[in-house]
């Protein structure tokens, strides 16, 4: 006895681990690579779990938060008992380590996390294949074996048994952790705590049996801890368990009515574990032997050995993982394709591919491209007589149709700013002389569409656009990091904009350089000489109107005859006013007809109004 006491007192010499022996993990081993103690933002305590490497093994560092390292003789004896435990279903305790001013317990690490995590993950561990009834019995059996050994050891009691303190290794073996040291880490009151310990804080073997019953219900149902269909508040659950009032104590749901004969025996065993009277609860030796018998009978009925069952389960698990990988791969591909489609709407395809492959796009000079600009004549006047939502709807209706037209031509939409619409052809993919042809045909398609377009909120009002086209060299590249844009630079861009601004409503204003390119193609376009036009920054040049093609396939609208811009604005405002006045008169007429009809039918007028208008107006 004296030798044993002396051996226990020598604990300090061999149980403390030098901090330099706790190494950080490699990145490939886990995402937790640091031993640095970070403050937990949720409270005034630090996070209590860290990972590290000790003696070439991955370990968990559990914060012994109530200790400064100056252990009492009783605590030293408890820690010494833990060091002597070495069992298959219990995690190994390697000792303690002091890092900075904190004391940690060094404990064996299990890769799959806690049993609570496994039960919650119904995708990786589905009920139908991997987590079947046989496996659930196996999990309960593992815990019972571990607790049976622990209760027969010098540690004698766990004190904090819960599903979060049962961990699963890479071979799906369940091990119990965080046992013993109750003088260092006193147990807290929670849903796994036995009613007698809720009333009087303590630990006991029968209290561990109660906690085991709560865990068993979690395993069977795979629902929340202490699941009941009629009580959801944890504080209320604890209060009702602690009070113990009534003939039938408050316990989790575990109905015997809908289970088979094989499950019945397990259900009865679990219910016996949470008896109100601790003396009526079985000990873990009995629980272990009962589950061993059930497990043995199960294999006897199936004519399978344990290894056969394990192999079959692993095969099912493997197939489920393959299906899961395929499913996740398909989801990934769908998301990737969706992201690509969105990127292709924002940037040219070659630019997107270059950004994905290299992360950058080199600016590029293009010898010859054709640029299109258009805007809506009298857009400011239209906005004046429209609500903001009507303006948005108007532009959306117009540009959706423009975008659909663009899909039929080799062009790239650069941007829209308000009512301005900019398109280019010949970049980023060069297409010879086709850039002028594609832009010209696209412009004719757009102008033909505008001849029949009608505003939803101003029906009957013509919408006039001006179009300008110019060809020449330009530079292009991606500008910016956030919201990157593919931008064009050079005098060609400015000139194309001048062609649009000096144009006329429902006309396609084309520069001489574009006409010269069209002449070199086999496409027969019709055009008229406009004459000399002053372009700011370039002087006076001969410009043209594009009027169609030789085959007369474009039905273009007739342009308004007035060239004075102010006169056009005034005419547009007058047309809008007439439309709005006509709508108001029609509304008044309909309201009068409704009033007369209500009078003839004997219904009071104000009741008729309430039924047809917003009733809140009359409250």
From TrEMBL:
Q: Which UniProt keywords apply?
A: Cell membrane, cGMP biosynthesis, Glycoprotein, GTP-binding, Lyase, Membrane, Nucleotide-binding, Receptor, Transmembrane, Transmembrane helix
Among the Pfam families in the record, one is Guanylate_cyc
Domain spans labelled Protein kinase = 31-295
Q: Where is the Guanylate cyclase domain?
A: 370-500
Database matches in SMART domains: CYCc (SM00044)
Q: Where in the cell is it found?
A: Cell membrane; Endoplasmic reticulum membrane
EC number(s) given by UniProt: 4.6.1.2
Superkingdom of origin: Eukaryota
Keyword Glycoprotein belongs to the record: yes
Please classify the protein's predominant subcellular localization into one broad category.
membrane
What membrane topology is given? Single-pass type I membrane protein
Q: Which InterPro entries match?
A: A/G_cyclase, A/G_cyclase_CS, Cyclic_nucleotide_synthase, Kinase-like_dom_sf, Nucleotide_cyclase, Prot_kinase_dom, Ser-Thr/Tyr_kinase_cat_dom
According to its record, what are the GO cellular component terms? endoplasmic reticulum membrane; plasma membrane
One biological process term from GO is: receptor guanylyl cyclase signaling pathway
Provide the reaction this enzyme catalyses.
GTP = 3',5'-cyclic GMP + diphosphate
The GO terms this record gives for MF are: adenylate cyclase activity; ATP binding; GTP binding; guanylate cyclase activity; peptide receptor activity; protein kinase activity
Keyword flag GTP-binding: yes
Assigned protein family: Belongs to the adenylyl cyclase class-4/guanylyl cyclase family.
- Indicate what this protein is called per its UniProt record: Guanylate cyclase
Q: Which organism is it from?
A: Herpetotheres cachinnans (Laughing falcon)
């Amino acid at each position: 006895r004296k030798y044993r006491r002396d051996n226990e007192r020598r604990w300090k010499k061999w149980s403390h681990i030098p901090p330099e022996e706790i190494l950080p993990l490699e990145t490939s081993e886990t995402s937790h690579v640091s031993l640095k103690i970070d403050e937990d933002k949720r409270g005034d305590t630090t996070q209590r779990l860290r990972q590290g490497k000790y003696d070439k093994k991955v370990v968990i560092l559990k914060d012994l938060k109530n200790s400064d390292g100056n252990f009492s003789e009783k605590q030293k004896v408890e820690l010494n008992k833990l060091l002597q435990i070495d069992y298959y279903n219990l995690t190994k305790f390697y000792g303690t380590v002091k890092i900075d001013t904190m004391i940690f317990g060094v404990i064996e690490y299990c890769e799959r996390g806690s049993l609570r995590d496994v039960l919650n993950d119904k995708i990786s561990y589905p009920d139908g294949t991997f987590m079947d009834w046989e496996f659930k019995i196996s999990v309960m059996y593992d815990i019972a074996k571990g607790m049976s050994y622990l209760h027969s050891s010098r540690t004698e009691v766990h004190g904090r048994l819960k599903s979060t303190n049962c961990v699963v290794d890479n071979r799906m073996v369940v091990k119990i952790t965080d046992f013993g040291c109750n003088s260092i880490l006193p147990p807290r009151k929670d849903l796994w705590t036995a009613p007698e310990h809720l009333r009087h804080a303590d630990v006991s073997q029968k209290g561990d049996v109660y906690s085991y019953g709560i865990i068993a219900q979690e395993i069977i149902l795979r629902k929340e801890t202490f699941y009941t269909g009629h009580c959801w508040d944890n504080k209320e659950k604890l209060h009702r368990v602690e009070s113990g009032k009534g003939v039938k104590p408050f316990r989790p749901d575990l109905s015997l009515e809908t289970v088979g004969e094989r499950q019945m025996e397990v259900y009865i065993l679990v219910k016996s574990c949470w008896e109100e009277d601790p003396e009526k609860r079985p000990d873990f030796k009995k629980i272990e032997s009962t589950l061993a018998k059930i497990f043995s009978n199960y294999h006897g009925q199936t004519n399978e050995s344990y290894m056969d069952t394990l192999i079959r389960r692993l095969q099912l698990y493997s197939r489920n993982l393959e299906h899961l990988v395929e499913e996740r791969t398909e989801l990934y591909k769908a998301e990737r394709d969706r992201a690509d489609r969105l990127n292709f709407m924002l940037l040219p395809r070659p630019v997107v591919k270059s950004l994905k492959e290299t992360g950058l796009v080199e600016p590029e000079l293009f010898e010859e491209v054709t640029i299109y600009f258009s805007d809506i004549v009298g857009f400011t006047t239209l906005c004046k007589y429209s609500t903001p939502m009507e303006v948005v709807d108007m532009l959306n209706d117009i540009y959706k149709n423009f975008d659909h037209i663009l899909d039929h031509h080799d062009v790239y939409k650069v941007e829209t700013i308000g009512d301005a619409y900019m398109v280019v052809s010949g970049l980023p993919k060069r297409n010879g002389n086709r850039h002028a042809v594609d832009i010209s045909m696209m412009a004719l398609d757009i102008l033909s569409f505008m001849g029949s377009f009608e505003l939803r909120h101003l029906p009957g009002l013509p919408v006039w656009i001006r179009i300008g086209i110019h060809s020449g060299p330009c530079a292009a590249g991606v500008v910016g990091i956030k919201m990157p844009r593919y931008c064009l630079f050079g005098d060609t861009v400015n000139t194309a904009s001048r062609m649009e601004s000096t144009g006329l409503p429902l006309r396609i204003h084309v520069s001489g350089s574009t006409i010269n390119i069209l002449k070199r193609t086999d496409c027969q376009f019709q055009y008229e000489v406009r004459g000399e036009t002053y372009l700011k920054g370039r002087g006076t040049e001969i410009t043209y109107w594009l009027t169609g093609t030789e085959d007369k396939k474009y039905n273009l609208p007739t342009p308004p005859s007035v060239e004075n811009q102010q006169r056009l604005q005034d005419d547009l405002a007058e047309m809008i006013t007439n439309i709005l006045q006509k709508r108001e008169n029609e509304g008044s007429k309909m309201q009068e007809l409704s009033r007369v009809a209500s009078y003839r039918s004997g219904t009071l007028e104000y009741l008729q109004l309430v039924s047809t208008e917003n009733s809140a107006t009359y409250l």
